[in-house]
Every structure is written in C-alpha cells, then in structure tokens.
Amino acid sequence: MRDFSRDHSALALNTASLGHNIEGRGAGWEPERVIDACAARGFGSIVFWRREIGLRAVEIGDRARAAGLAAAGLCRTPFLVGADALDRTAVLDEAKASIDMAAGLGAAVLTIVVGGVHPGTRGTVESLRILADRVADLVPYATERRVKLALEPLNPVYAGNRSCLTTVRDAVDICEMVDMPNLGLAVDVYHVWWDSDLDAQLQRAGKNRIFGYHLCDWLADTQDVLLDRGMMGDGVADLKAIRASVEGAGYAGPCEVEIFSANNWWKRDPGDVLDVMVERFRTLC
Amino acid sequence: MRDFSRDHSALALNTASLGHNIEGRGAGWEPERVIDACAARGFGSIVFWRREIGLRAVEIGDRARAAGLAAAGLCRTPFLVGADALDRTAVLDEAKASIDMAAGLGAAVLTIVVGGVHPGTRGTVESLRILADRVADLVPYATERRVKLALEPLNPVYAGNRSCLTTVRDAVDICEMVDMPNLGLAVDVYHVWWDSDLDAQLQRAGKNRIFGYHLCDWLADTQDVLLDRGMMGDGVADLKAIRASVEGAGYAGPCEVEIFSANNWWKRDPGDVLDVMVERFRTLC
Description:
The structure is a homodimer. Chain A has ten helices and eight strands. Chain A is an alpha/beta fold. In chain A, helix 6 links the parallel strand 5 and strand 6. The radius of gyration of chain A is 18 Å and the shape is globular. The model of chain A has no long low-confidence stretch (mean pLDDT 96). The A-B interface holds A 83, 116-117, 121-125, 128, 155-157, 159-161, 164, 166-167, 169-170, 173, 193-197, 218-222, 225, 235-239, 241-242 and B 83, 116-117, 121-125, 128, 155-157, 159-161, 164, 166-167, 169-170, 173, 193-197, 218-222, 225, 235-239, 241-242.
C-alpha cells in the first residue's frame, strides 16, 4: 500500500465536498479559488461537476493544470436508464455532451451514475441489460475523445431511482459484457463499505478496470442517505482495508474525497474543510 | 412455483403491517381481533412482535391455533452486536428470553435482526465474526425449545446501526460457520430485491436453511428507509422472480407480509389492508 503520511499528492478534491459552491450550498467559492486552495495544500488533482463549470470547461481545465493540479475527473453523465431516461436518443446525446465536456476539461475519467429501475421492468436485471446496451454505444465516442468512462455502483438504498447498479460485482459484469478498454468502474467507500464480497470483486476487476477511488466515511447513525456523509475517520467504514483491496487489485490513481454533508461540512469554511481532509488523509486513509 | 391464485393459505400476516397496533400506530386492534380478521380472510398463519404480546405468549398462541392460524414466527431477538450489545451476557440473556417467548407462543421461527457495526471495529467483517460467536451460543438453547432461529439480512443502508448482516451470502456463511440445523435465514424482499447474486445464494442456502420469506415491495421513490415500505405491486421489486428463486431453493413455507408504512397503510382500516393483501398475494406475488 502507498504511504500517504509524507506524500499526499494522491489526494483529490471532489468539489461536491465543498457543497459544489453553487446553488446556495457551501461558501460559494468560484472554481479558480477552489483550485488555488487545493494547490496550496498539496492536493494532486481535482474533480468538478458539470453544473459548476458549464461552458468554461477548457478554461478551467487549463487553469487547474497551471496551478499544478490534474483534472482527475468530471461528474457525471445523465442517468442512462430509469424513469428519466426513457428516450434513448436524447439520453445518449446528453451523455455525449458530458463526454465532450470531460474532453474539454482534460479530465481523465467521466463518472457514470446509471439511474434506477427502468420503467416497465422490475428488479435490476433487465435495467442492467438496457444499461449495458446504452453504455456500449457511448464507449467508442468516449474512446475517440480520450475520456475513460467509470461505472459507479451506488449503495443499494438507491437502486429504485438512482442506480440499479449496486455492486462492484455487477459493474465488472457490465465491463465484461461491453468489453472495451475505455470502460471501467469507480469504487466509492460510501457505496461499497458494507460488501464482504468487495475484495474478491476488485481482484476480478483488476487494475485495468478500476478508474477511480472515492473517499468519505459512513456515519453509523446517518441521518440522511443523500446528504449526511462523514469525513474519513468519523464513521464505521474500514478505510485502510478497502484501500488495501483497491490497491491490491492494482489501482494506483487518485483518492478522491467526495462528501455530501448539508448540515456539517458544507457549513464550514472551505479552507478549514480542506485542511481536515489533508490531515485525515495522511493519518487515517 | 406454488399457485396462490386459488389457495392463499400460505399467506401470513406480520402484525407490523397493521402498525403493530400499539404505540399509537395503526388502529389499535388487540391481538385477538387481528387473529380473527386474518382467519376470516383465509390467512394461514400470523407473526407477532414481542412488544405486542408481552406476557400473554402462551394464551395468544393458543388463541391463534384455535382460530385456525399457525404462529409462523416471532419478531425478534435483541441486536446481538453493535452499540447496544456491548454486554455479551446481558444480550444473550435477553435473546434467550425471546426464545422462551417464541417457545411459549408456539412459534416455528424466531427472527434475528443482528445489529450494526460493533464498537471498536470498522467495516462488517469483525462484527460478523462476533455475531457468529454469539449465535453459536444461542442455537443449542433454541434447539432444546424447538424454536428455529432465522438470521435476517437487512438492506445495506442499515449496516451501520441495525444490521452488519446485509446479504443472503453473508447469512449462509454464518450458517455454515455455526453449522447447526436449527439455524437458518429469512429472506425479505425489501432487503434483498436489488441483489443480482440472490438466486445463486439461495440455491447455496438450500431448503434446510431458508426459514422464512417476507413480502412487501420497494417503492422506487421511497421517502423513508424505515417506514415507507410498499404493498406488493406498488414498487419495483420483481416479486415473482424472487419467489421463484426462494421456492427453487426448496422453500415451501409461509409468505409473510411485513409492511412498515407510517403514512399510508398504517393509516388505513386494518380490515381493508388485509383485504388488499389477499388480493395482491393471489394475483401478483
């Protein structure tokens, strides 16, 4: 395992952790200010959300690199299946627009949050089949633009309306079905920490399929399954064990802190939040 | 698969579906009234909660049988691990008291909801080990009293503070570790509907390990992960497919409707709720 205690250049900020800095959430810092604050603290990379950068993708990507940060990723495609994804053509067009934005930003990875159970179906199996079909259409487009697509399994609590993809196991299955090198998966502690099959499935994925590793913590008495994520060390996820599995499978990329926290971290000064991230990352992750 | 369209004697009521009829939830019907209402509608069995029957277990069990209903089960043991289960002796003593109550009721099965991540540990692995150790202590006591113990995996959203046991896979693992015939598992649609590994794990469990099958539905846009369960047919779980798996593994016991629904079903007339259950069970499950 990598030693972060003296080198935290693997640390990446997902800007969601500062409340996206839009829509009245967080302190409202502009992307440039977030970039500088991360660079000043030795973060190695940054991950933006589409809504934050709009038409400024190229400019902001260049600005991040000028400050010494890589653009590790962009969040995210639209839902590809589910109630909001009935129109296949419209969904794929918007997904391609998100790929274009990732390419403009110079982001290595675009995350796919897949969407829930597809209307007219029950359970997750048929939705996953539709998903695989749609993803297969997107991968060549992304490959041409040098953007990797990362399927992100979400906690099963979201299976109804956000992600019929709930486990690394299912994500690897889809990667194997589609079988193109530009398709992989992202592993987020929040979504997979409970899974006793995780290590085996990460080994099965292997280093060529793991495109991202997301950090936060699961609060034992979580108050909200969307907006009450914990800072690393404040919850019950076994962060060291999960990273050992992820790195044991060959992953050596950024560790991206992504904390949605409406009533705690989003209310704090962003500089303080970044300081805590660095300290926790070096000592607990 | 069994055909319920003309014979719904496999249908069981879990009294939670009527709001437990205590604590200001539901219509406040006494157990006797619930028994008669179920018997009148052709339910084959009933499952009570400890809090509902208190010291009246023997009396209520006899009353149910006199009305033609089997006492299919009792809910439930105390949490065996987690923050409320630090004192091993106290927890096992209370669990034994719940076994005694199940024996008094004449219940075939006592459900174990296991509790969350054990204090001082992270992740679920160590908690599951402690759980297996404690369960191994309980099974002989239950065997002597002819009560089967059913480990119930809960949806991973509860892994922090209610159930470090999240999958049928983990439940079968514990059954195999403990390796006593009186220990098995309960399969609840609400908790496992999303799991693409379910069929394989149920086959692995086999008919001698599946002690219960619980019905409800997962509402796609669920508003509360505790008290917003759906009636069969109102959600996105593939009920027919899950039952095919459960029965394919050899299960031929009761199908127990357990719906926690503070803002919908608990507000309705219990007789109407029971009527809807029968109709949905015969046509959709």
